[in-house]
Structures are given as C-alpha cells and as structure tokens.
Write a structure and sequence with these properties.
heterodimer, A: about 220 residues, alpha/beta, nine-stranded mixed beta sheet, two-stranded antiparallel ribbon, B: about 80 residues, alpha+beta, Mth169, Chain: A, three-stranded antiparallel beta sheet, 2 helices, about 30% strand
Chain lengths: ~220, ~80
C-alpha cells in the first residue's frame, strides 16, 4: 500500500509516522510538503502527523488546515481514502472540517506527556479492526491542547453512531466524555490525540499501536 | 481602515485559561472578581473597499472557530 505523510512547518512526528508506516507496509511513505497541491497517485492512506505546526498560531491546527495540500486531502477523504490524524494531525482535521468538534487547552492547563490507558470503543472500523471492543491499551500522549469539545448533540451523535474509536480510561485532559479519538460518518477518517506510531515495536517497550496500522493495511490493501 | 475582531469563547465552553487568570488575580489579593474569560483581539488594516460580508467570511473561515468561539467585528474610524 502506498502511504503519504503530510509535512507541515512545525510537524515533529512526521518521521515517526513514516517509520511506522514503512515497518508495517514494507514500503517507504511518501513525504508530502503542505504547500503541494496534489497527493501521490494511488495513495491508500494519508497520515497527518503530530507536532506544533505554525507554532499553534491562532489555534492549534488552524493555519495548517488552510494550507494548499488540505484541499487535496479533503477531496481524497470524500472519495473514501483513509485519513489518519495523530495529535496535531487530529487538530488539523477538526479545523479542516473533516471531523466535528474542537481540541482546546487541557483542562489542567499543563502539557501532558506520558503513557495513558485507552479503551477501544469501536473495534469495527478500518483503523481498529485488530482490536477487541472494550480492550484496554497503553499509548503515549504528548499535548497541550487535547481537550476534546463538542456540543451535546454532536457528542450524542458520535456515540450513537459508534464514531468514538478510543476513550481515555483515566483522567488526562478534560475531554468531553473522555473521548480520545473519533471517526467521521463514513468511517474513513480517524483523529486521535494519543500516538500509536510511538508504540509499534519491542524497542518501544510495547506495540499496542502497531495493530492500528496492520488493521488498516489489511482493510485497505 | 482599521477593523478589530474580538474572538471570545462561547458561553458554555469551559475556559481553563480564564480560570487560571482568575486564580492568579485572587492570589494577588484582588477581591470582587467573579469570573474571567480570556479571548483574542485581532486587528486588521483593510482597504476601504472590503465589505462587511467579506470580513464576516474571514471570521467564519479562519479567525474564529465557530464550534467554540463567537466573534464581534468593530470598524474603527480614523
């Protein structure tokens, strides 16, 4: 499967994502600069990395969401191409309107950087099919603005439609209904604050994130 | 023409930064502060031909995130 990692000015997890994708797919990910207008032909997965693109100016992800490549990403998502946004990538996806809600300053105001326990809420999506529903996994977070907010109606809809992919199994950042990751209505866009690409091999101490990429490969390929 | 855009969090949205400022004011001994909400002021220097509708569109498309924020536009004379 051909994969693309979008690189924004200030992305800092783009190489981690590329390494994870290459390990799982056996193929080098294509790095696509935010100023590009087109994605590589036949791309099977688009990944938006973590980081602090544009220094979080205005709002986290706000500037990146308006960059030229995002028009192509929105168009590809509309065609059903899987899009994964991790951390800052999740913030960009909400700002671009591909996912509902917004990510606000952590309720405790502190930058949170540690392993957190997550519960897999929906194990049927293209991203989560290798997990069991209700399974607990340990994945690191590293963010200042991960406090998921949406109005009650939107939250009810997300829950009712099985679009909550992951929840925090502990207090992390004040997110509404402990939401850590959500899917779009079609199920081909996932945004999550925790970093699955940081736990994919024995050298990381754990590999709870690897199955996300393996599941994708299986579903998409 | 100078135009000011005031971006503020919507009423129901928790404002941890405002809470921290509130706490710090109390720590400095200021009494009588009931609540603090933090927002942003964005100043635009615009050509006279830019319409209210265009400014409104700038707010909706970029300057404010209407999921969590309200905005108010103020044209400044002179």
């Amino acid at each position: 499967m051909k994969t693309a990692v979008i690189v924004f000015p200030g992305s800092n997890c783009d190489r981690d994502l590329a390494v994870a994708l290459e390990q799982v797919t056996g193929r080098k990910a294509e790095m696509v600069w935010h100023g590009a207008t087109d994605l590589p032909d036949g791309v099977g997965l688009i990944a938006l990395p973590g980081g602090f693109s544009y220094g979080d100016y205005l709002r986290a992800g706000a500037m990146s969401a308006r960059s030229p490549i995002m028009r192509a990403v929105v168009e590809a998502a509309g065609r059903g191409v899987p899009v994964l946004g991790v951390c800052n990538g999740f913030q960009v996806l909400t700002e671009a309107g591909l996912l509902p809600g917004a990510l606000m300053r952590n309720a405790g105001l502190n930058f949170v950087c540690r392993d957190v326990r997550l519960t897999v809420d929906n194990a049927q999506s293209a991203f989560t099919s290798r997990y069991d529903a209700g399974e607990e996994i340990l994945v690191p977070v590293a963010h200042h603005d991960g406090n998921f907010f949406a109005d009650d109606e939107t939250l009810d809809r997300l829950e009712g439609e099985g679009r909550v992919a992951f929840r925090y199994a502990e207090q992390v950042n004040g997110s509404a209904r402990s939401i850590a990751g959500i899917l779009n209505a079609q199920g081909n866009v996932l945004g999550m604050m925790p970093h699955p690409e940081r736990v994919i091999e024995a050298a990381h101490g754990r590999s709870d994130g690897r199955r996300l990429f393996e599941g994708l490969l299986e579903t998409v390929a | 023409m100078k135009t000011r855009i005031f971006v503020t969090l919507k009423g129901g949205v928790l404002d941890p930064q405002g809470k921290a400022i509130h706490h710090a004011l109390e720590g400095l001994g200021f009494d009588g502060v009931n609540d603090v909400r933090a927002g942003k002021l964005i100043e635009l220097d615009l050509d006279d031909g830019v319409s209210d509708e265009q400014i409104d569109e700038m707010c909706r498309k970029l300057l404010a995130n209407t999921v969590i924020e309200n905005y108010r536009i103020e044209r400044v004379q002179g």
